Amino acid sequence: MEEVLAFMDTELEKVGVPYEFLEWTQPVTYPYFVGEYNEFEPTVESGEQEKTFILTGFCRGQDARLNLERMRGKIEREFHPVTGKIATLNSGSVVAIFYSTAFYVPTGEEELYKIQINLSVKLWKVV
Predict the structure, then answer these.
(1) Distance between CA atoms of residues 97 and 75, nearest Å
(2) Looking at beta carbons, which pairs linking 63-68 to residues 24 or more positions away fall under 8 Å?
(3) Which residues contact 48 (CB under 8 A, 6 or more apart)?
(4) How far apart are the C-alpha atoms of 116 and 105, rounded to whole Å?
(5) pLDDT digits (tens, 9 = 90+) for 32-44
(6) pTM
(7) What is the pLDDT of residues 65-89, one digit of tens each?
(8) Span 13-67, pLDDT tens digits
């Protein structure tokens, strides 16, 4: 999964989405995104692995929701729901990442907005 995380970091950086894995460690500037993933038990014999990559975005300020929507749009275009983003990694494994869903999450904090974006990840490892 390390290669997939590095690929995700590179692709998000290319489209201008400020992102770190698990927690934001830089000085806070809005918007920013943190990522994590869930793995699923394999259900096919092809060696395909499925994961959900969760991007959580945070933003404050007058245009916070609009800024989060702009970032969501960039992510959706980069990882199109139908065509996705497909790459062969250095190890020879193949990864395909697709935009899946997005929704806002209440924060309970005034003027802090949060969005969760789910990406579907399919990975075929070279053995």
Answers:
(1) 11
(2) 64/30, 64/31, 64/111, 64/112, 64/113, 65/104, 65/113, 67/30, 67/31, 68/31, 68/104, 68/113, 68/115
(3) 42, 122, 123, 124
(4) 7
(5) 999 999 987 766 6
(6) 0.91
(7) 999 999 999 999 999 999 999 999 9
(8) 999 999 999 999 999 999 999 999 998 776 666 668 899 999 999 999 889 999 9
Residues 65 and 84: beta-carbon distance below 8 Å: no
Q: Enter the tokens of residue 12.
A: 């998000």
